[in-house]
Amino acid sequence: MCSNNHQYDKLVLCPQCDMLVAVPDLEQGKKAVCPRCSTLLTAKWKEPRNQPTGYAISALMMLLLACLFPFVSMSVAGIVSEITLTQIPKVMYSEDYSSMAVFFLIFVQLVPAFCMVAIILLCQHVRMARRLKIELARILFKMKTWCMAEIFLAGVLVSFVKLMAYGEVNIGLSFLPYCLFCLFQVRAFQCLDRHWFWNEIEPAPAICQPLQAGKPGLVQGIRLCQCCTAILPAQQSECPRCHTKGHARRRHSLQYTMALLITSVILYIPANVLPIMVTQALGSHINSNILEGIILLWSSGSYPVALVIFIASIMVPLLKMLAISWLCWDAKSQSSHDSETMHFIYEMVEFVGRWSMIDVFVIAVLSALVRMGQLMSIYPATGAVLFALVVILTMFASMTFDPRLTWDKANSKFALHDNEES
Questions:
Q1: Topology annotation, domain 249-421
Q2: What is the pTM of this model?
Q3: What b-and-e string marks burial along 138-167, b requiring 16 or more CB atoms within 10 Å of the CB?
């Protein structure tokens, strides 16, 4: 006999460590985290429907203003170059670097704008077909990771330091609106609680077996729907709420992760050796790769910026690949590494991985703004595309890795305890 939803509506299955947690009644502004891995499970926001909507509408308005006016300008020897946000992909496309233009359009403009529109439509219960509503919600949470507006803004600030060595740099009327857009879109995601959000779309499916908080889901024969956070029987492949197919653990997680990781390692070498940028000045062409750019910044006295680029573009991708390799090895082997330590490594990989795109966005700004004929022009090169692919592949590698695998060895004590009781 199936238990009613009200009996288990406060149970949440942790998506990171698979622990079933009983969430108490939360006060406004409070959040519940997993007691085993400290992953955020749910939060109770004041006006949970209107807050994300307000921030999303504000973000879209700021993005519209940011696209209407000049973004930044540069003056060298009396020659002025000025760009808008919409001109950046156009310039890269005109220079036969359509791939760079696509990266910019998708990660900086289209995906953030789509997510804000989706938040408004879903939070305000705009009338639409149930299937469309579910698909929109599924895409929204998948696209969240690929919103890189704030990373592009950091790239703009880094490019300012480089450009100041050549001429006078000024911000345009759209610079402040774009900064506000970055702030509002990040805040809109922060105020959107995934657990509450899906329960608003449709109540969670009924659970037909007894559950006990404080035990892993796999030990109890249940699994988490990674899309809508519903608790399902482990053998049930399709979620009745969001119709997403899944398993107790991601199928072939380690194989997919290692395949993506090996590909990124192969591309990492030419991405750092080949030039990422070509500078044309007074008829001469200067090719520079990532390390040469860092050395140039360091020699010119821009130590903090050089350090940021070195960490984000050299150290982070390398350490991320090593960390993912270690996570895969630990999940596959019978080693006795602390699960909490391995989980911390995984969270760090997830957090810092996107920020390696900062160098790609620096090149996008420089190549769009520095267009002064024979006096000075900057063009993207092959290394920039390869480096962007390295970042994207490592992001996919961390997404395909199932972090619950690092906790499964620790779950054996729960299974042993159940056997002793029986």
A1: Butyryl-CoA Dehydrogenase, subunit A; domain 3 (1.20.140)
A2: 0.86
A3: bebbebeebbbbbbbbbbbebbbbbbeebb
